[in-house]
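Schema walk-through. Below, the input block comes first and the output block second. Nothing else is stored per chain. Lengths vary across the set, and this one has 441 residues.
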Amino acid sequence: MDFRKYLVLVFVLAAINSAFAQHNSPVGGGTAEKSDDAGVSTVLNINNKEGVFSSTASFTFDVKNALDTEQEGTVSYLLTDEKGVKVKTLSKPVKIGKKSSASYNFDIAGLKTGFYKLNMMINVSDYDDTTRRAFGIRPDDIRSAYAKPADFDSFWKDAKADLAKVKPQFKVTEQPSQNTDNRRVFLIEMKSLDNLTIRGWMTLPKNSNKNKQFSVLLGLPGYQVTLKPIVGREDDLAIITLNTRGQGNSRDVIHTERDAFISYNIEDKNKYVMRGVIMDCVRAVDFIYSRKELRHNQILVTGGSMGGYLAIALAGLDQRVTICSAQNPILSDVHNLVGTVEWPINDIRKYVAGKPDVTFDQVLHNMEYYDTKNFATDVKCPVLLGLGLLDPYVPPGNGYAVYNSLNTNKKVMVYKDLGHEVSQKYKEYEGSWMRDTFGLF
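--- output ---
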């Protein structure tokens, strides 16, 4: 592999994934180290690289006292399941001498399969704080308790049939003012389900060979994110960024407030906004297949948050996708989100409260047709999945319910100290994986 191309691609993927996954997450990255800036600091470490264990969970809490006074009090933890139900607590007295440090090791045996939230607390003479982390026990054994609807496949077969009735009317318009020294930028437009116009961007390497064909990276948007053209230095890759209906430059018909988009027509599974959004993604593949300069057998679909959700949904519904990369996909194991996360459940409840003839249970039933894990069962192409154990929108147990529903070549990369995001290592792996798969050396 050309190492310079590899570095450039990593940079491009980093920019793409950052844009795709934006969701104003209250949980970010960083370490488990905390300090009061006055002399006491702590580090909580889950004693497994990915934060998962086959049996006994193990973690270490380090305390450093840089003060000239002895610190006396307690170190304790509260362990709950993902819904906040208490599983175990423990407290021990501690005494940390001046200008010294101490380390406390904890092991918890006998835990059931699943993920757990850990609140580690210190309460000493001059310092009080809580550090939050999570870990899993035998996550490969996690299975959703909620079955896929018997008519799931026929429901989406009908949606694709409705899409096929709409003439795409593909339109490609070069944007000379946005071109770079090595890439051309195009506005792309097409008709999708319900005869809505959707738009996005395509950037192509400048090339004098009119018969040259390029592998394709299809980027799908995060929730209420505006995708822009993505350019880079690589000379063998076309980059398409799609703004599905209600997003970016495709908001002319559906233009809800940010919080209202997730609930738009959710009371009717045949009119729910995500039906059209997912069909927009299928139409984007139609666009790729309509272009002679694009390699139809080399399509990477990628996205984070809602984009990760759409990547798996598209790969499940459209066998033309070659490989799929999904980071922190939302709407995963939807029933099990209730009581576990605030978003999108609170926004959906708010919507239902304003609809006297609609019940929350009715909406949950409709959401079964839009659950990430149910699309996952139909994916045939290789999948790369990224999960953060501190994700406030995609609890790791829900993410693993999706991963374990995949019956294909798959890999999961887990980040024990991250929230609704993935690390640079994920982006590097994604880039090299794509180049290896497509033979781009």
